[in-house]
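Quick question about two entries, pasted in order.
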Amino acid sequence: MRLVIQRVLSASVDIEGKRKSEIGQGLMLLLGIEDRDTDDDIDYLCHKVVAMRIFNDEQGVMNRPITDFPEMGILVVSQFTLMASTRKGNRPSYIHASKPDFAVPMYEKFCSQLSSLLDKPVETGTFGADMQVSLINDGPVTIIMDSQMREIF
């Protein structure tokens, strides 16, 4: 799984001109899924998200996790293009991106586990939909994770 974490002042998802989801301050997560991903990958990434200290403390240092701010939200959007391979040519290959029969249940498990760890619902996009995603990145703070590498880029 690949995950892009963005600290935001606000974020939203519109589908066919209608607002599907929105949050104020919090985290916007873009999630890419491949066939080799397992429940262990979900567990790893969800625990990292809730524990990652990327919000400012009283001294302005990124030292606090989202769990310190119950009013903040999380918006999770599936994004198969995160799994793009750009090794050959100029047209990305999405051969590593999972098909919906595997990816949808994994996406739903990821959102459910994250919601459980936070003890509140997370907002979502709609898997496979043509979504218009808007956000105001705070900082900017953007972190990329790959569960297969078990490290932050």
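Here is the second entry:
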Amino acid sequence: MKILLVTPRNPQSFWTYDEILPTLGRRCIFPNLSMPTLAGLTGPDHEVMLCDENVEAVDFETEADLVGITGYIIHRERIHELADEFRARGRVVVVGGPFASLCPEELKGRCDTVFVGEAEETWPRFLRDFEAGCAQDLYEAGELPDLSSAPMPRFDLLDVGKYHALTLQFARGCPFTCEFCDIIVMYGRRPRAKRVEQLMDEVRECHRLGATQVFIVDDNFIGDKKRAKALLRELASWGKARGYPLDFNTEVSLDVAADAELLELLREAHFTTIFVGIETPRIESLKETKKYQNTRGDLLTSVKRIQSYGIQVQAGMIVGFDHDDEHIFSEQLRFIQEARIPVSMTGLLQALPKTPLYERVREEGRLLEESGGDQFVLSNIAPAGMSRIELYRGYRWLVEQLYDFRHYRRRTLDFLLSRGEQVHTGLNLRRGDLPRLARILWATLLGDGPRRAAFTLALLAETALRRPSVIKEAVSFAIVHRAFHAYVERLGEELDRAIRELETQAPEAIP
């Protein structure tokens, strides 16, 4: 068979960096790993084609016996559109991924087959059924699959040069019980991992294909610390022998800060950045959402301990918990500034289907999508500690302040000048870096007005004078600010529209 696997375009967010991709010479930050993984699960008798709408247009006339679509809840509308277009042309369409797993009822009648859960067993079984003419309309994974026998994803089907980084997955699942998180709903609380050598084969393949950045997409890379340490030792040995050709980043829980051996191994393996779900500096809100792992030590101390190993902390932050009031916004800003976190992906609390939070707020009558046709919902929860207008206004102020030129420059400099040494000291220039750095400097000094030029000059000048070895990182932070500043401007317009809509309603009509 000819099988076309389609990844829908991403809506703009903190993660997409849309404003700066042309300057970086890329179309997308990183690929969705689902489709290369699915291609790896497909037998050699079939011809598999990948189409990532983030790097190329979808050709709806592509000859294919079968079209597979994946995506998250944020891709809901585009998944429906893609399925409709392909089915209108007589194609058989199947849909899987997190959206299908969490909301399978929404896809009933919109595609031919829905996949719920992980596909290691259901996808090969479906292909056999499809060839035999007895495919079902729903395939639901039974037991969680053993990843130690999973085949290598088909990275060779990706147009590697169009991505800033490639993606790998070592493990699935997380041992914690955060109320808002859908990871344990989909993947369970017992982390399951590939074999170390299995993952190292994937690292070698990404390196062979020309990648210089690798994002290990585990939702908690240290969910099983023993396995994570075993992999890190191999990555460190491999990187050291080759002059550290790859920069790694991943997602971890904050308890990484309490394990000195783990932090040293992350440094030795050349993990330059980790994303940490800090969520909030307010302890009562952390307890409310059952993120107890963040309450066992001082948050600022933990972040700075990670940074002392030369690792950048990117923060996931949330406002809108029940224990949040109108003071939370200034508290969040103060914490992020004091923690020297340049990149904070700060959002409004969302109740995702099937999560404990979703069930709780629905029972309390505070789930907005079921409360009477709200046309513009930035958070689907009616807040407990303030009005929705106060929440949206406070959130708008917070993200504007976070990416204000002065605030961003101050905490970025604080981080660069106080960060510990990375394992690869010096400028660490690679092939292609100089042209990219030149484009960044042109964009930030000459291409975006005097205010950005002054901001960039101040950032680079102080870095060059006080710690010239990190000037490459300073240049990167300058262009990253351009992406977030542009996104926050667009987000502010959306928030203003939502606020105006709420202001036209009678107070008693606003949930």
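Reply: The first strand starts at residue 2 and ends at 7. The longest helix spans residues 471-503. Hope that helps.
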